[in-house]
Amino acid sequence: MTDFFPSEAPFLPHEAPLKMEPQNLHQQPDRHGRPFRILDTTPKLLWLRRLFVFGTAILLTGFGVYKINQVFNSLGVSTLGVIVLVLFAILGFWIALSFTSSLGGFASLICRGGLGLGIQRTGALPQLKARTAVLMPTYNEDPTRVLAGLKAIYDSILATGQIDAFDFFILSDTTNPDVWLQEERAFLALRQATRDNQRIFYRRRHQNTDRKAGNLHDWVTRFGGSYQQMLTLDADSVMDGSLIVRVVSAMENHEGVGLIQTLPVIVGGRTLFARMQQFAGRVYGPLIAHGIAWWHGSEGNYWGHNAVIRTRAFAEQAGLPHLKGRPPFGGHILSHDFVEAALMRRGGWAIHMVPGLFGSYEESPPSLTDVAIRDRRWCQGNLQHAKILGTKGLHWVSRTHMLTGIGSYIMSPLWLLFLLFGILISLQSHFYHPEYFGTKPTLYPHWPRVDPVQAKFVFIGTMGILLAPKGLAFIAMLFDRAALRGSGGAIRLFLSIILETLIGGLIAPIAMLIQTSGVISILLGRDSGWNAQNREDGRVSLREVARGYWVYTVFGILLAAAAWSVSQALFLWMTPVLLGLVLAIPLAALTASRDVGLGLRKAGLLLIEEETAPPPILRLAAENDRLRTEAMHGPHQPPSEAFALLRTDRTLLDAHLGALPPARKPGSAIDAHLLVGLVKLKEAPSLRTALSKLNRQEKAAVLGSAEGVALLENLPE
After folding, report:
1. Distance of alpha carbon 673 from the chain centroid
2. From the centroid of its chain, how far is CA 482?
3. CA separation (Å) from 105 to 54, 85, 114, 476?
């Protein structure tokens, strides 16, 4: 490379269109001669693994139902007893399936599995033969933060000596015009820092149709023909270059594989909540991921990022149709990743996960509030899958993925119902007495009666199955010396698991009510919208927390009063749930605290290997973030407002003008926001007046027009 003037190179390469049509969910797909049931990369005896996982879960559930029936219906069948029995069967199978899957994960971890497809953890890197596009979608995010992570990925791939096999695309769906111009400036700075005009590209969609799925669709149909694979990222993704090379090589060597999902490990947490999330993800996450990969086999899932996808397979099978009806259940598909994986597998492409490779990272939202906002959108997307379950030609495991996604949110209201019906049974036993004399005298009344001894055994057994994966993860960590040392040793690891379990247990009833309210609002027809994810851990005032969580405290107090009025035993039995709800406000404030999170880190608790002994990719990311922070606090800060930024940075202005789309042709669609914005600019006596008159859509429209940019350039201050 001899030209290091990033503003003079085009923002995008030459287009190489690839056809991508919406799939018909009501007819079988065209598999182009590929097999469906057993693929070339399907592990041997996979059916036996699945039989073990589901068969054992069914047996455990059946035994639990038998025991719970003895608890509530020991003297006969009743309505409340049957309801509780059905709820327990559903909830029991849910936790039993998680337990049996974790047993497979434990075996895989101990045996150093979790790879397949010829992938090696160590040794010389394979040589790549085809081109791969690294795709970084972004939506109203801090561009300097996003591109600091992307630069770390670039530098890590560069260190492998195979940078020529990769191009990098920043795919913006940003609607905030100020952020848009900051993205362009950060993009040019990235080109300058890497001295690379030929591999780093930027594209912003002026109409962000179908959100992230539409963003990728637009790239595939414009540029996908030039790349055999694409690596999809999220705005907070960081991936090691050697991991990327190994996974891409596996895809090149297995023509029937359509997608390879890596295991993203959460890092960078500073608040107590984020550190709990990253600790749980690092300690329990591998066990869970190894478990599902163990029985998913070639019918794996896609988590939306940190995955390598065969571009042709994606274009051929993963075009998403719009669902009939209005949001929240109709319209474009929100949780697109599960559906895209299911459609690709339906088309005869293998979907694999490789949890045995480390080097794939992401971040956690900093607080319970931020998770609740994100979960509301995920909840709507997962419930929307109910309309896709009947798609013709889906593999049964793909349907299981969708049912699991739906269940992850439906279980919260079911747990709440189980709790409330349990209270009703106790209330009935407390306030109603048997009628020994009637038209047909009987010795035994027909209502649910609680057997306290059996209830204790059921509770102990249920908690054992629920907590067993944590115990298995602890044992597995004892066999991984590096991870154990990075977590502070066996004693600190054990104490951290206890701490995370206790605080997580207190948060669980709050999360249950949050998810239940989300499910109810979706069933009432309320759309979640699309907001940018908060990734910063700024301080939250106690007043703000109280405003968001007082309702859970009130509900907990009312529930405690109801339990106490029935019996002290019931009150004590429900104490873990009641305590979490009553303490909702201080819990939310405590877990959102950065000081508490960092204090526990200093105490050697909730540690993970990636922070005590960071791998090279995370050191690169940390250094980039340090430089970014220093630049933010430097003496010469560029304006954050888009008009001012363009007027003070001629290089950015020239590059921006060169990247604008062609002017509107006669007869094409009319942009009302642009017309109104141009009129307002022409009538404005000054830049300040123009800014006060333009709304966000109009401002973005005039910035996307050469005429609009010329007008604002000539306006006086």
Report:
1. 34
2. 27
3. 14, 30, 9, 10
Task: For residue 119, give the 3-state DSSP assignment.
Answer: coil
Q: Rounded to the nearest 10 degrees, what angle do helices 575-582 and 584-591 cross at?
A: 70
Q: What pLDDT, on the 0 to 100 scale, is given for residue 691? A: 92
Which residues make Cβ contacts (< 8 Å) with residue 487, sequence separation at least 6? 282, 283, 477, 493, 496, 607, 608, 609, 612
How many Å apart are CA 138 and CA 4, to the nearest integer?
A: 25
Distance CA 466, CA 609 (A): 26
Q: What is the pLDDT of residue 668?
A: 87
Six-digit token string for 46: 């996979």
- Token pair, residue 241, equals 């270059």
Write out the two tokens for 122: 């160590």
Q: Which two tokens stand for residue 139?
A: 């939506």
Tally the C-alpha atoms within 13 A of residue 146's C-alpha that lie toward its C-beta. Answer: 28
d(CA 256, CA 266): 30
Q: What are the residue ranges in the chain where pLDDT is below 70?
A: 1-8, 73-77, 429-452, 529-539
Q: How far apart are CA 503 and CA 501, in angstroms?
A: 6
CA atoms within 13 A on the CB side of 633: 5
Q: What angle do CA 46, 47, 48 make, to 5 degrees?
A: 90
Measured N-to-C along each axis, helices 650-659 and 706-714 cross at an angle, to the nearest 10 degrees, of 160
Q: 521-528: long-range contacts (C-beta < 8 A, 24 or more apart)?
A: 521/376, 522/328, 522/329, 522/379, 522/380, 522/383, 525/326, 525/328, 526/328, 527/327, 527/328, 527/380, 528/328, 528/334, 528/376, 528/377, 528/379, 528/380
Collapse the DSSP code of 528 into the 3-class scheme (helix H, G, I; strand E, B; otherwise coil) and give the result. Answer: coil
Put the strands of the sheet holding 360-362 in their side by side order.
238-239, 360-362, 265-266
**The predicted structure's pLDDT at residue 564:** 87
**What is the residue-wise DSSP string for 654-667?**
HHHHHHSPPPPPTT
As given in the structure block, the two tokens for residue 384 are: 């929307």
User: Partners of 137 in the beta sheet?
Assistant: 171
| Contact status, residue 500 vs residue 606, Cβ threshold 8 Å | yes
Phi first, then psi: give them for residue 131, nearest 5 degrees: -100, 145
CA 32 to chain centre: 32
Q: Where are the beta strands (DSSP E) in 191-287?
A: 200-204, 229-232, 238-239, 257-262, 265-266
State both tokens at 367. Answer: 């607080």
- Give the CB-side neighbour count of residue 275, counting CA atoms within 13 A: 29
Closest CA to 534 of 277, 202, 235: 235
DSSP code of 19? -
Distances (CA, A) of 585 to 461, 463, 590: 31, 26, 9
Per 3-state DSSP, what percentage of the chain is helix, strand, and coil (rounded to 5)? 60, 5, 35
Residue with tokens 């150093």: 112
∠ CA 366-372-377, rounded to 5°: 115
Tokens 């890590």, residue located:
156
**554-594 pLDDT tens trace:** 999 999 998 888 878 778 888 989 999 999 999 999 999 99
pTM of the model: 0.93
Cα–Cα distance between 179 and 138 in angstroms, integer?
Answer: 11
Pairing of strands 132-138, 350-354: unpaired
What pLDDT is stored for residue 656 in this prediction? 95
Pairing outcome for strands 307-310 and 257-262:
antiparallel
Can you tell me whether residue 231 is helix, strand or coil?
A: strand
Which strands form 229-232's sheet, in the order they lie side by side?
200-204, 166-172, 132-138, 229-232, 307-310, 257-262, 350-354
Is the bond into 328 cis (omega within 30 degrees of 0)?
yes
Q: Which amino acid is at 694?
A: L
How far, in Å, CA of 392 to CA of 27, rounded? 6
The rounded distance, in Å, linking the Cα atoms of 393 and 348 is: 10
Please, are residues 176 and 140 in contact by the beta-carbon 8 Å criterion? yes
What's the pLDDT score for residue 612? Answer: 95
The three-class DSSP label of residue 533 is coil
